[in-house]
Design a protein that fits this description.
heterodimer, A: alpha/beta, Pyruvate-ferredoxin Oxidoreductase, domain 3, 6-stranded mixed β-sheet, 8 helices, B: alpha/beta, Rossmann fold, 7-stranded mixed β-sheet, 5-stranded parallel β-sheet, 19 helices, 22 strands
Chain lengths: 191, 585
């Protein structure tokens, strides 16, 4: 089995790292080798965040090279556009349609591209936008966007969905289990 | 059972499993999680030191007292700890001592890209360079064995992609903790010149013994494959080499100082082209060339700057990259990190930006005040330099007949780290700068660690909390005042007063970090009838603010995202039309 590459992009504070952890733990639970890597440090300060999860029989580098991702999950449309070149030809993109202004836009130094979704579709023929925030809110917590996003790609992973659900259960705290599982299935239904 | 953990977590886990007794260090990306994880595991004593030098020195004391010890820091922290390191190499250890240093090639969150392998060579100490989490785990254990066998401190070096990358780790059997005797041994631990001279001879002899060890240890491994291309590498570069050339012959170095000369010579002799793949400096290549061994591909093809990857390696070997990707989409708005909504730094930098003063900055979240639109920080060098550099500037301003006082901005943790001595110099040498200490009672940029001002310690529980104002006064600073940077008018008046009063002047803001202490205030809203779309509030660089859509020919008005706003009220004070207030409902 060749290495399956997942890239997860978003904005600091959105839960990209937790989503990465769920995918990595799920791969491990299936007996596969896995490497997961993101660059953090300033991540909580609203900056752009990118995380890599690589799954396979044997995985060497923790880094996904541009042009090699099987799946790109983006928690925000502008970040989808920023990292779309990580996808391999035919690779799948799922993105949350809810936009978050970068500080450069908030302070009037730049404008948010109004045609962001058209640009995404132009760059990737296999792109799917979902309303992750409202799905998360319906599940019971706006912060469960990360689980919605994991759910949205679940059936496209080389991992059994039941394993992912099991990992989410084990990683969630008390009340969070129900919300996270609902978010997961909400995401799966949306994509 | 295997676990997926980061390199930092693996080092912490192995420290506990390998008889570790004492750990200290100072937070610094990408090293920080190591000590945090030692604390979380809860088996071994650990603490935050005010700086890396203190951390290493405390670890030295722990080693002399017979406990296996660990000091953790980022690459630039070794500069601070280097004074201790350069003589520690002479004294050697009692129980094993590991200095864990995390380098940051690519400068994901650092001010420079220095290569710590230089320090191993400089200090003549062994250095291990793990290539994944499992090796990070294993190398702590073997590191203690080397440290004790050769009576030397050992450096365990990671890079960002080792410290923060997660991989599968198999835990080993736990070694029971054994604490040795505290023995008085003056010639070993007192480095007066006469003892130091004898010790230096021992250090040179030790290095030769370590070289012999390097030839035979399985830490340095030859993987013979296709002999057309042979690659000498270490650390995460090994993983990139395996991606680029899974079938090439590889000499993978785990012990990267001292180098195994015979092993390298033999390996280079067996391959047609010899390539050296290393991030940052040409440490291997220069030594290998000095041995008279040929290097066919090295730093002539691989940059000294940034990280290595599989495509860089392939192209260095003269091949096209294996992957052809789309060009990145151009001209997208950048998304740099910024002050959190509600952060107390925002008010301060709004005023500093308005006053257009020269701001001598420091290392911390507040360094983001240098970015537009605030653009209110004009020099940032190293930890503590804000104060000492402002002092030098003030002296030259005086010589040049310039009247403006420079302003230094520093956080609480950085002040404790190495700002105190700069302020002492300013008081002692009749300085003339305004120093603003942003005391948010946490080491914010690295994720909110405890420090001597937070009243808490790493393993939980309360501790003595330093009184910064009192400390500043005993250093000899007469003018000390407290400010509240959420109040812009008051802050502006205080800064102006500090600028106008001759001599050193210190202002202290004591608003806590809203992220660390989870401060939540009522959110603000914008009265769309009153907003004129003048954009004055946008200068606060808050991501909760944004422009709405407007009909053709009209100015778009400002909106506040209630999911992001944290109610600090800075924007309401920047608004001249009274359009912002606490949102209703």
């Amino acid at each position: 089995m060749s290495v399956f590459n997942i890239v997860i992009a978003g904005v600091g504070g959105q839960g990209v790292l937790m989503a990465s952890k769920v995918l990595a733990e799920s791969a491990l639970a299936c007996g596969m080798d896995v490497k997961q890597n993101e660059v953090h440090g300033m991540a909580q300060r609203g900056g752009s965040v990118i995380s890599f999860v690589r799954i396979g029989e044997q995985v060497y580098s923790p880094v996904v090279m541009p042009g090699t991702a099987d799946i790109l999950i983006s928690f925000e449309p502008l970040e989808a556009l920023r990292y779309v070149h990580y996808l391999k030809p035919g690779g799948m993109l799922v993105y949350n349609k809810v936009t978050i202004n970068p500080s450069t836009v908030a302070s009037g130094l730049a404008t948010y591209p109004r045609d962001v979704e058209e640009q995404i579709t132009r760059a990737c023929s296999n792109a799917h936008g979902i309303e992750a925030l409202s799905i998360a809110q319906k599940a019971g917590n706006a912060k469960a966007v990360n689980m919605v996003m994991v759910g949205s790609v679940m059936k496209n992973l080389p991992i059994d969905s039941l394993v992912v659900e099991g990992v989410v259960k084990s990683l969630s705290k008390d009340k969070g289990v129900d919300v996270n599982l609902k978010a997961l299935s909400g995401g799966a239904a949306a994509a | 059972m295997k676990k997926i953990i980061s390199g930092n977590e693996a080092i912490a886990l192995s420290f506990g499993d390998s008889g570790g007794v004492f750990a200290s260090g100072y937070p610094g990306t990408p090293s920080t999680e190591t000590l945090e994880e030692v604390a979380r595991l809860g088996e071994v004593y650990c603490e935050w030191a005010p700086n890396e030098k203190v951390g290493l020195e405390s670890a030295i004391g722990a080693s002399i007292a017979g406990g296996r010890s660990l000091a953790t820091m980022k690459h630039v922290g070794v500069n601070v700890a280097a004074d201790a390191l350069m003589t520690l190499t002479y004294t050697g250890v009692n129980a094993g001592l590991i200095l864990m240093v995390a380098d940051d090639p690519g400068m994901h969150s650092s001010q420079n890209e220095q290569d710590s392998r230089n320090y191993a060579k400089f200090a003549k100490v062994p250095m291990l360079d793990p290539a994944d989490s499992q090796e990070a785990y294993d190398f702590v254990r073997v590191g203690f064995e080397i440290s004790e066998q050769f009576d030397t401190p050992l450096m365990l070096r990671t890079t960002t992609r080792i410290s923060h990358a997660k991989g599968c780790v198999e835990q080993k059997e736990k070694i029971p903790v054994k604490v040795g005797e505290l023995v008085k041994n003056v010639p070993k631990y007192v480095m007066l010149p006469n003892f130091g001279k004898l010790k230096h001879v021992e250090v040179e002899a030790r290095l030769l013994k370590l070289q012999e060890y390097a030839e035979t240890t399985p830490l340095n491994r030859v993987e013979m494959g296709d002999t057309e291309l042979g690659i000498i590498t270490s650390g995460v570069s090994y993983q990139h080499v395996k991606e680029a050339y899974p079938n090439a012959s590889i000499l993978k170095l785990g012990l990267v100082h001292p180098l195994p000369e015979k092993k390298i010579r033999e390996f280079a002799g067996r391959v047609k082209r010899c390539m050296v793949v290393e991030e940052m400096d040409a440490i291997f290549e220069e030594q290998i060339r000095a041995m008279g061994i040929r290097v066919d591909i090295g730093k002539d093809k691989i940059s000294y700057c940034g990280e290595v990857n599989a495509d860089i390696i392939r192209s260095a070997a003269g091949e096209a990259p294996a992957t052809v990707s789309l060009a990145p989409v151009e001209n997208l708005p950048q998304r740099p990190p910024t002050f959190c909504p509600g952060c107390a730094h925002r008010g301060l930098f709004s005023i500093l930006s308005k006053l257009k003063v020269f701001v001598s900055g420091d290392i911390g979240c507040y360094t983001l005040g240098a970015l537009p639109p605030l653009s209110a920080m004009h020099s940032v060098i190293d930890m503590g330099a804000s104060i000492s550099a402002a002092h030098g500037m003030a002296k030259v301003n005086e010589i040049a007949g310039r009247t403006e006082k420079p302003v230094a901005v520093i956080g609480d943790s950085t002040f404790f780290h190495s700002g105190i001595t700069g302020l002492l110099s300013m008081a002692y040498n009749d300085g003339n700068a305004l120093v603003i200490i942003m005391d948010n009672r946490t080491t914010g940029m690295t994720g909110g660690q405890e420090n001597p001002g937070s009243g808490q310690v790493l393993q939980g529980g309360s501790s003595k909390q330093v009184d910064i104002a009192a400390l500043v006064k005993v250093l000899g600073i007469e003018n000390v005042a407290e400010i509240n940077t959420y109040n812009l008018a008051e802050t502006e008046a205080a800064i102006k007063k500090g600028m106008e009063t001759p001599g050193p002047y210190v202002l202290i803001d004591k608003n806590p970090c809203i992220l660390r202490y989870r401060v939540k205030k009522p959110v603000m809203g914008v009265d769309q009838d009153k907003c004129t779309g003048c954009r004055a509030c946008l200068k606060a660089a808050c991501v909760a603010l944004g422009l709405g859509s407007a009909p053709e020919g009209e100015k778009p008005k400002v909106q506040i995202d209630p999911n992001i706003c944290n109610g600090c009220g800075v924007c309401t004070q920047l608004c001249k039309f009274d359009a912002m207030s606490v949102a209703k409902g």
